[in-house]
Amino acid sequence: MVLGGIFSTIYVLFTIPSFFLIDRIGRRPLFLIGAVGQGISFLIPFGCLIHDTPETAKGAAVGLFLFISFFAFTILPLPWVYPPEINGLRTRTLATSVSTCTNWLCNFAVVMITPLFINTSKWGCYLFFALINFAYVPFIWFCYPETAGRSLEEIDIIFATAFDQKKLPFRVAQELPKLSLAEVEEHGVKLGLYSENDQLKPVTVLNEKEESVTEV
């Protein structure tokens, strides 16, 4: 019971940094930190439980605490933020629904399968999850473009440019500078996302103190 309370407390506390880091360092680095950190965390109980003794069990517990720390500020919040950003307007609702459904189905599968797996092979279970996390790293590296600081229209431009130039989206995101509204329109017309008659409306920001409207 005490360990459960400590576990939950660590879980809650380590979710807090995600509010500040997700925009400060970006989605892509957090995904990578989470995958590598969780993989290393699972290797600790894997190594400790090969020879299961009371002493090695303590080391395994440290690995689990480390895992939940990495998970709480990386992989936990990102699946709720990233899918809506990388999908265009026409597919955003459906794609976000599918990603949310997949997220919960995977959670359900892990909760149901893990106890059976641990009963069969304690160390094997943690090795399996470590390998899954490490296998996730190249997928993140090559398939996940950075979206922090980008408008949804810019992200559309990134994927359209990647398709047009036969490049990986993460490369385009690294090479493409931040775009103004006019530049988004220009790129969108060239890529066929908008017609020349389409015009993106500027975002209006109301400054309540000065009671003025500023166009961004």
What's a quick, concise take on this entry?
The chain contains 9 helices and 2 strands. The protein is mainly alpha-helical and 216 residues long. It folds into 2 domains: 2-143, MFS general substrate transporter like domains (Growth Hormone, Chain: A); 152-215, no CATH class.
Description:
- The protein has helices at residues 2-24, 27-49, 54-73, 78-86, 89-120, 122-143, 152-165, 169-175, 181-191; strands at residues 204-207, 212-215.
- With 216 residues, it is mainly α.
- It has two domains: 2-143, Growth Hormone, Chain: A (Up-down Bundle), CATH 1.20.1250.20; 152-215, no CATH class.
- It has a two-stranded antiparallel ribbon.
- The chain is elongated and about 70 Å long.
- Mean pLDDT is 87; it is low at 203-216.
Briefly note the CATH topology name of the largest domain: Growth Hormone, Chain: A
Number of domains: 2
Topology as a string of helices (H) and strands (E): HHHHHHHHHEE
**Could you give the order of strands across the largest sheet?**
1-2
Distance between the termini: 53 Å
CATH class of the largest domain: Mainly Alpha
Instruction: Please identify, by name, the CATH architecture of the largest domain.
Output: Up-down Bundle
| Major sheet summary line | 2 strands, antiparallel
Question: Beta fraction of the residues?
Answer: under 5%
Membrane topology: Multi-pass membrane protein
Domain Major facilitator superfamily (MFS) profile: 1-148
Main location: membrane
Subcellular location: Membrane
